[in-house]
Design a protein that fits this description.
- 25% of the residues lie in helices and 21% in strands.
- The protein has 8 helices and 10 strands.
- A 10-stranded mixed beta sheet has the order 1-2-3-5-4-6-7-8-10-9, sandwiched between helices.
- α4 (204-215) links the parallel β6 (192-202) and β7 (219-225).
- α3 packs across α4.
- It is globular and about 55 Å long.
Length: 391
């Protein structure tokens, strides 16, 4: 049995103090401290056009800090025919907004290396619109370049910072901050309900979605897809072939607070672990997704983190993925979403964000957003919730 840092709570009234302690610990030891004083300073609509099932807007979002401003292009799709404001899914993309759709009207990013529509399989806009959700995305490099030595070029350059500070925020913190600024911007888009916002991310951007949701309680739902080490996977689960703190901080030193590298090969000494990061989303909805062949992201470690985080949800009389009296030793059935307000699924295949992952994520969002009184999304496309672990 894994020995994990305790969540140390049994009642909801204990959560505000414990939540603050955990946020402080993750800022200090893992992601770095997000500075105060940032904002979304302006939103310019550069053009709106009809698409099948809705319309698409191309926005320039100006984000600001004490030292200046930066423009981030944001692509927004909004469904037509809703009876009221609709939920919005917010996520960053890896190669430019133009790669998420083959549509010729979408601006091609300057110095783009990837062709138009090349990543469209990861952004099934038609199905998302059909399900009753708006979706907004921006290229992550427009927020923070994903390479060491570029902190001053991105949004971190909008803030005073000491490069030698072991608790200074890294690129994951910057991307998480950017998700919040996009939420600020889409709150001004007609037809969108900002109180029904979903943060989603794949891989390193799944880490960012989790950290954004942990800090920013405006996100009603958080979705992590194959986020692995530094995301949903337990550091203390030593699965075969999984990424470690030593590997991730060697390959990507700019992602985290500098002090995080000090826990390389010392996972058991880290004061926090992934189940506590997941618990920071409670009582809001959280869905964690894995892939069977994605050993680097440690699917079993991700699932076990949801089980270990379940007591935080249970303290609010909500359901997680834990089953009383069972000690999980293997993954749930492939393709079935298990749990309730905190849920999980694993699919076949490797490291990717698929249309099936989107379907599972939106299924997880549907119920909680309906409970919050948002415009009811279209009926779920996959009836995948386990009856053994109902909501």
């Amino acid at each position: 049995m894994l020995e994990l840092p305790a969540l140390s709570l049994t009642q909801p009234d204990e959560w505000p103090e414990r939540r603050g302690e955990l946020l402080e610990a993750f800022a200090r030891h893992v992601y770095g401290r997000t500075p105060a004083g940032g904002s979304t300073a302006g939103v310019e609509d550069r053009g709106t056009e009809a698409v099948r099932g809705g319309h698409r807007s191309d926005l320039d979002v100006t984000v600001a800090g004490p030292l200046g401003e930066r423009v981030v292009p944001v692509l927004v799709h909004v469904p037509e025919g809703a009876t009221g404001p609709v939920p919005v899914v917010i996520g960053l993309n890896f190669a430019g907004n133009h790669t998420t759709t083959p549509a010729p009207g979408v601006r091609i990013r300057r110095n783009a290396e990837t062709e138009r529509g090349a990543r469209a399989s990861r952004w099934p806009y038609g199905e998302i619109l059909r399900r009753g959700y708006a979706v907004a995305t921006a290229h992550y490099d427009d927020i923070e370049v994903d390479a060491p030595g570029h902190a001053s070029d991105g949004v971190r350059g909008l803030f005073l910072r000491d490069p030698a500070d072991p608790e200074g925020w890294g690129a994951i913190g910057a991307w998480a901050w950017g998700l919040g600024r996009i939420l600020d911007a889409v709150a001004e888009v007609p037809g969108i309900d900002p109180a029904a916002a979903v943060a989603i991310g794949h891989s390193r951007l799944g880490k960012a979605a989790l950290w954004a949701g942990a800090q920013d309680e405006r996100f009603a739902v958080v979705v992590s897809n194959d986020s692995g080490c530094g995301g949903a996977a337990l550091h203390r689960h030593h699965g075969p072939g999984k990424e470690t703190i030593a590997a991730i901080t060697t390959n990507f030193p700019h992602w985290f607070a500098p002090g995080f590298a000090g826990y390389a090969d010392r996972e058991d000494d880290l004061p926090v672990d992934a189940h506590q990061l997941l618990a920071l989303i409670a009582p809001r909805a959280l869905h964690v997704a894995s892939a069977v062949e994605d050993a680097w992201a440690d699917p079993l470690g991700e699932y076990l983190a949801t089980v270990a985080a379940s007591p935080a949800y249970e303290s609010f009389a909500l359901t997680g993925t834990r089953v009383e009296g069972e000690e999980p030793v293997s993954l749930p059935t492939v393709g079935r979403r298990v749990g309730g307000r905190l849920s999980y699924h694993v699919r076949s295949g490797g490291h990717d964000l698929t249309a099936g992952d989107w379907g599972q994520a939106l299924d997880a969002a549907d119920r909680v957003l309906a409970e919050r009184g948002s415009t009811a999304p279209v009926a779920s496309a996959t009836a995948a919730t386990s009856t053994r672990r109902g909501a």
